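Propose amino acids for all 246 sites.
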């Protein structure tokens, strides 16, 4: 594969676990359990082809409104998966991170998660970021609060606030924006994911349900991405001219 056209940052909304389980006559939690294999495969293939950042939407701010038994099962699964997968992640040089309103997470989950984050923090390969209790509106609100406090304290001039300043206060600061955002299960919405960072992302909405997602599906998404012309407001002619100059 042409290295130049491999996105540096891919973000995925892992959707469809519940429907996958229901189709097979099981409860929704069975679907979440089976989503872990898809995560493993996705992490592996991203590492293999040289994606630098992979951000996975695992639990949204709004997911706290689900039935309590489903939330509890998801928390348990998260702890189990983090504990089980960390040695493999570490041996593959993956650096684990988490973004979101983590203060809302149960303490036992945070302890295990922080251990895994700390354990892999020196790794220099793929940066795997789990979005947990994440919501873009929450993230932007937090950024505004912090910047407003700085301005009120006289530490920042309101006139000097620009896009770069705002970026520094987002949970993703320092990461490039995702070139490609994938949402499985056929739903075509962002559900409060990376609203700022996705301003110029390419979107890909395969019908496949998350537990069925495999390496080849990720490669297909990248193939589709490579066919897109990213114009960033310019004309198609300008983009062709720029390409001819390279
Ligand atoms: C995505 O699958 C996983 C989470 C949101 C935690 P869903 O649980 O949303 O599955 P569907 O959309 O109901 O099929
Ligand atoms: C979005 O999926 C969040 C995650 C995949 C973690 P949802 O299934 O919660 O989104 P909606 O409610 O269908 O928009
Ligand atoms: Mg869903």
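Proposal:
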């Amino acid at each position: 594969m042409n290295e130049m056209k491999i996105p540096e940052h891919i973000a995925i909304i892992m959707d469809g676990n519940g429907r996958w389980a229901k189709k097979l006559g099981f409860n929704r939690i069975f679907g979440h359990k089976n989503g872990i294999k898809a995560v493993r495969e996705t992490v592996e293939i991203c590492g293999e082809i040289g994606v630098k950042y992979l951000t996975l939407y695992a639990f949204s701010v709004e997911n706290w409104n689900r039935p309590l038994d489903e939330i509890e099962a998801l928390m348990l699964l998260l702890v189990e998966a983090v504990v089980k997968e960390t040695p493999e992640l570490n041996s593959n040089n993956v650096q684990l991170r988490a973004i979101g309103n983590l203060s809302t997470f149960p303490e036992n989950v945070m302890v295990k998660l922080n251990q895994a984050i700390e354990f892999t923090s020196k790794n220099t390969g793929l940066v795997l970021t789990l979005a947990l209790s994440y919501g873009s509106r929450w993230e932007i609100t937090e950024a505004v609060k912090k910047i407003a406090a700085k301005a009120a304290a006289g530490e920042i001039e309101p006139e000097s606030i620009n896009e770069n300043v705002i970026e520094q206060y987002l949970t993703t600061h320092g990461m490039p924006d995702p070139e490609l955002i994938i949402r499985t299960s056929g739903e075509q919405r962002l559900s409060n994911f990376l609203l700022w960072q996705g301003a110029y992302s390419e979107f890909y909405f395969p019908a496949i349900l998350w537990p069925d997602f495999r390496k080849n599906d990720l490669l297909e998404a990248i193939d589709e991405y490579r066919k897109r012309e990213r114009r960033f407001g310019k004309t198609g002619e300008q983009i062709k001219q720029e390409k001819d100059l390279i």
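The beta strands are 9-13, 53-60, 95-99, 127-134, 180-183, 202-204. The first helix runs from residue 17 to 23.
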